[in-house]
Design brief:
Layout lengths: L9 E6 L6 E5 L1 H10 L10 E6 L5 E11 L2 E8 L8 H15 L4 E6 L3 H9 L4 E6 L2 E7 L5
Length: 148
């Protein structure tokens, strides 16, 4: 899969990461294009987006926050298939939790198909979580650190 370089990164918010990728604010449009290339829906509508970028500016992952209600927002993380298992998803989730705290959110809401990768990602975040499984659909709530 070819991912395009993001000229949309906001260099004022660049976070050092365990994966070595730079995490920065990106445009909603850049996040939507990236998700589309992975055939992922993400959250709709997207309110804010972060991108994981290589040194050359190549967008290799996104984390998005969706609609907000009652101090809770939907969240979604996606990483290019060839870049998975390199801690990029963990870096994006950590950055999303920090962004959620900056926005005064108390909880992130995540829904996924019950596969093991999202479970590992969420549990590895170190945040307090609760989850409910109905069939193969998992609904998880992640408490935003420092907001309780």
């Amino acid at each position: 899969m070819h991912t395009e370089q993001s000229k949309e990164a906001d260099e004022s918010f660049v976070s050092p990461t365990a994966s070595g990728a730079k995490v920065a604010s990106i445009s909603i449009e850049a996040a939507e294009v990236f998700l589309g290339r992975l055939d992922e829906k993400g959250t709709a509508p997207i309110r804010s987006a972060l991108g994981a970028l290589q040194d050359d500016g190549l967008l290799i992952g996104v984390g998005v926050l969706g609609p907000e209600a009652d101090q809770q927002a939907a969240a979604f993380v996606a990483v290019a298939r060839e870049r998975r298992r390199l801690r990029i998803g963990s870096d994006l989730l950590s950055a999303l939790l920090a962004e959620a705290a900056n926005q005064g959110l108390r909880r992130l809401h995540v829904t996924y198909d019950g596969s093991a990768a999202p479970d590992r990602l969420i549990r590895g975040s170190g945040a307090v979580t609760a989850r409910r499984v109905v069939g193969r659909v998992v609904t998880a709530v992640i408490l935003v650190p420092g907001q309780h």
